[in-house]
Every structure is written in C-alpha cells, then in structure tokens.
Amino acid sequence: MIQGHKRAKNKKNVLNICENFKGPLKLLHEFMQNKTQVKIYIRNNHGIRGYVTGYIEIFDKHWNVTLKDAEEFYRRRKFQYCESANFDESSVEDCSARLKKLGIELPEVNVKSINRKNVECRRKLPQILIRGEQIALITRNIEPP
C-alpha cells in the first residue's frame, strides 16, 4: 500500500482572518484582546434607539456581538402621557412573583425623566447579545466606567 499524506483542514474563522488584515473587524478584534470598553449605538426603524457600553466577549463576521458587564441606555415615551387616555391599572398583572418562583430574575431598570414626553432608561446586564443588523456604530468608550 502507498501511504498518502493527510491534508490539513483549513481552519478558517473570523478570529484567524481578522489578524491578517486591517479594517473594522481588526479593530473589533483589538478591542476584544485588550479588553477595551466599547460603546455600541443601537438603531431602530426611525433612528438611534440608545447605546450599550461593555466589554466585547466574542463577535462574528455578521457583526453579532456579545458584551459582558454591559450597561444599556435608551429613551422611550412616558406611559400615560395623555390624561384623556382610559388606562385601567387593575387589568395589568404584575408577574414578578411568578418569575421569582421560577428562578428568573429580571434586571432592574432605572428611569429618569428627561422632559414632559420622554424618559431615559438605564439597566445593568451581566451579558448581552446584540444582532449585527441592529448595530449602527461601535466606538471606544472614552467616558469613565
């Protein structure tokens, strides 16, 4: 029998590829290696929804990013802004007790009023996955943590 040589499998992944070229993925890889805190601006249908700060844990070629020790900031309209709206609070059920029974703990949301119509919400998350199509911009966070 004639022995052939085994062909080495081509191990291509984003982390091996981005070491060889310069560009945005290379910069993302440097942020991950150096454990640099980043600020990711999140988009919605009509513009920028808010931003998330944290440390990049992993990413892929579709710009899906996982952050750890993340803090999310976003703006939304105030509930019950219009006094003429008929809103019955008794019909809304608080399910926090049922979630705690199941062992699910939701992150606490801190709400701060900006003006008459809008509030800024802030929540701290241990880990978050952000889809690439929702990312508008990624920058190094220069604000103190």
TrEMBL record:
Entry GO MF terms: U7 snRNA binding
Domain Sm: 26-140
Any GO CC annotation of this UniProt entry: U7 snRNP
Annotated signal peptide: none
A biological process from GO: mRNA 3'-end processing by stem-loop binding and cleavage
Xref: SUPFAM superfamilies: Sm-like ribonucleoproteins
Pfam families: LSM (PF01423)
Tree of life domain: Eukaryota
Protein name listed in UniProt: Sm domain-containing protein
Protein source organism: Lutzomyia longipalpis (Sand fly)
